[in-house]
Amino acid sequence: MGFVAHGSRWPADRMQPECTGKYLLVRHNLYGLVGVLDTIPVGSIAWYEWLETHDNLSVRISDHGWFYLRKEARPPRKNPYWYGYRWPTHGGPRACTYLGKTEGIDFELLSSAGAKLATQVRELVAKRDQERKRRRSAARAADRRERFSDSFGDAPGDDSEADPPTDDPGAEGWPGVAV
Predict the structure, then answer these.
(1) Which ranges in the chain belong to alpha helices (H)?
(2) Sign of the four-CA dihedral 121, 124, 126, 128
(3) Tens of pLDDT along the chain (179 residues)?
């Protein structure tokens, strides 16, 4: 079946690497033994060599939770740059932040990216929840109007068939004016 990490399936011989704070943890499947672990300090020469040869990474910063790093070469640039992504726990739009070139990825940058992504996700979730609440309220109001018109005819304030008001004092309906 494979190893399942953060909603994506990884084969047992290619397990998802994780960066937990100041260390990169790389699990290997060596001679059928799953879980052989390499520990690489963030910011070391081995860390930058590892980043050069890989294109994605899950990161967990204790204060800000999990997020995902991905190396992308977006047009018009040809050189790859790192981006951080985080998704809300119950679906919705993802948060994204630019991290830069491999040489600049260190613990301080990862920590600030984690904080920024956590803030973006909170804002996106609040915006999504507010929009859902607005839609539910509008749907309830439309339902009430429909039920009222089914029971009593036209809804109050529905003057679509009535004559439009006029400013002419001689018009019918003005008090004390004979027509």
Answers:
(1) 45-53, 107-152
(2) negative
(3) 332 333 334 444 455 677 777 888 777 666 656 665 778 888 899 989 888 888 888 888 777 788 888 999 877 778 889 999 988 777 778 899 999 999 999 989 988 998 999 899 889 888 888 998 999 998 888 888 888 777 766 555 555 555 555 566 555 555 555 55
The token duo for 10 is 């990884």
Residues 49 and 63 sit within 8 Å (Cβ to Cβ):
no
For the stretch 127-134, contacts whose Cβ atoms lie closer than 8 Å and that sit 24 or more positions apart, written own/partner, are: 128/88, 128/92, 128/93
Residues 6+ apart with CB under 8 A from 56: 68, 69, 70, 71
- At 1, the amino acid letter reads M
Structure tokens at 120: 């973006």
Token code pair at residue 51: 């980043």
Residues paired with residue 59 on neighbouring β-strands, in sequence order: 19, 67
Q: Can you give the residue ranges of every domain in the chain?
A: 3-134
Beta pairing, strands 56-61 & 18-20: parallel
Does residue 76 have a cis bond before it (omega within 30 degrees)? yes
Tokens linked to 165: 């008001």
